[in-house]
Amino acid sequence: MDKLTQEQQQLILDFYFRCGDPKDIEGGRDLVAASRGALKLYAGLERALTDLDHIKYEACPDNLVDLTIARLKLMATSSKKSNAQLHQLLEHEQTASSLLTSEPARQRSTLANPPRNSRFLRPLFEVLAAVASIALVAGILFPSFGFARDKYWQVACQNNMRVLGAGFASFVKDNDRNNNGLSEVRVKAGSPWWKIGDQGRQARSNTRYPFMLIKGGYVDGRAFVCKGNKNAELLKHQTVTITQLYDFPSHKNISYSFTLFCDKNTDPLLCAQKIIASDLNPVFQKIRCEKSIFQGMDEFDKLQLNEQLKQSMSANHGGRGQNLLYGDGSVKYVRSRVLNGDDIFTVSGVDVYTGREVPAGSNDIFLAP
Predict the structure, then answer these.
(1) What are the boundaries of each domain within the chain?
(2) Is residue 293's pLDDT more than 50?
(3) Average pLDDT of span 145-153
(4) 281, 366 contact by CB (below 8 A)
(5) How far apart are CA 255 and CA 310, in angstroms?
(6) Contact, 213 vs 219, CB < 8 A?
(7) Is 253:233 a contact under the CB 8 Å cutoff?
């Protein structure tokens, strides 16, 4: 059990940083207690990071992890060339040393003061040792940096969702509990719910009601962009322009899927324990990514569910799970898409999608697109 899986390494990181679900933190603690390999990884983290405790905390940029990884990779790449040069120097020094030992003793006696280049041997070996240490540390830390980056994105995503939850709560409060302010953005049953970016008067997208949070000034557009979504783009529009829009300009401006808000289902914003948003729905991820002008599509490419689409999870977090936002503003990270027997990314009993589906009932959660 000394060889740890990626999931086990993630649990150890959760335990070390005390970051994540309490269940994961406890699982990491138990793993460290039971596995020699886990204990070794934990001890390595202690040795590598304890010395940093005295450093004064300063706010770091969002891309600090990416910059660090890029620099380490560059250093590792450069070290290969340096190693070749160092080996050449070593061979040269060894050749020179062998020639010296073959000379007569009287000639060697004239070399009581060794030439300057012989003094280079010790620093050379020290440099080689340093390069080897860097390569070893880089090999150990590259996976850890990847886990740390994924954990950072997961936590940042959860913070985004909490902001959205607070925005929805404020919107409902300002527009009374009947949500009259959202009546005009409900998708009519049978109408398309996938045309993100359509700016016509009729609601043809399930993203119109979350866009009301931006249009009303309740949240900033940055809250809709998950750092784990590589295709995301921040909404860049002046306030005056936003007031003239009815929907997000592009599907790239929104990294989350929301409960289908139509005239045939119950109001998701008033159900405290109902899921109202999640990381991107993996079923429709391919459609979102393949179309360069998403809102210009006239027809939805019919989509047939297969085993891969039925089992995949959000690409926002590498297919390992997704964050969920509930009506009471709470956020949870889950590693399954089936909750209480319901697949939150599909309509119950539907295997072929045309972009005009509605939930099968009040208990059928359908997060789209």
Answers:
(1) 6-52, 158-368
(2) no
(3) 72
(4) no
(5) 20
(6) yes
(7) yes
pLDDT of residue 31: 82
* Residue 137 token pair: 């540390």
What are 224's two structure tokens?
A: 């809709």
The Cα 269–Cα 183 span in angstroms is: 12
Residue/partner pairs of 184-192 with CB below 8 Å, 24 or more apart? 185/209, 185/211, 185/212, 185/246, 185/261, 186/261, 186/262, 186/263, 187/260, 187/261, 187/262, 187/263, 188/262, 188/263, 189/262, 189/263, 189/264, 189/358, 190/356, 190/358, 191/356, 192/300, 192/355, 192/356
The terminus-to-terminus CA distance of the chain in angstroms comes to: 41
Q: From CA 279, how far away is CA 107, in angstroms rounded?
A: 78
pLDDT at position 54: 46
Q: Which two tokens stand for residue 16?
A: 């070390």
| Contact status, residue 348 vs residue 361, Cβ threshold 8 Å | yes
Q: Give the pLDDT confidence of 279-288 residue by residue, as tens digits.
A: 999 998 877 6
pTM: 0.61
Contact 171, 164 (CB under 8 A): no
Beta bridge partners of 259: 367
The pair of structure tokens assigned to 349 is 């009993």
Q: Give me the helices (H) in 274-313, please.
A: 285-290, 307-311
Strands 303-304 and 322-326: unpaired
Q: Are 294 and 251 in contact (CB under 8 A)?
A: yes
Residue whose tokens read 């959205």: 164
Q: Which residue has the tokens 């002008």?
A: 293
Structural contact between residues 118 and 100, judged by C-beta atoms closer than 8 angstroms: no
Would you tell me the crossing angle of helices 121-174 and 64-102 to the nearest 10 degrees?
170
Q: Rounded to an integer, what is the distance from CA 298 to the centroid of its chain?
A: 32
Cβ atoms of 342 and 364 within 8 Å: the answer is yes
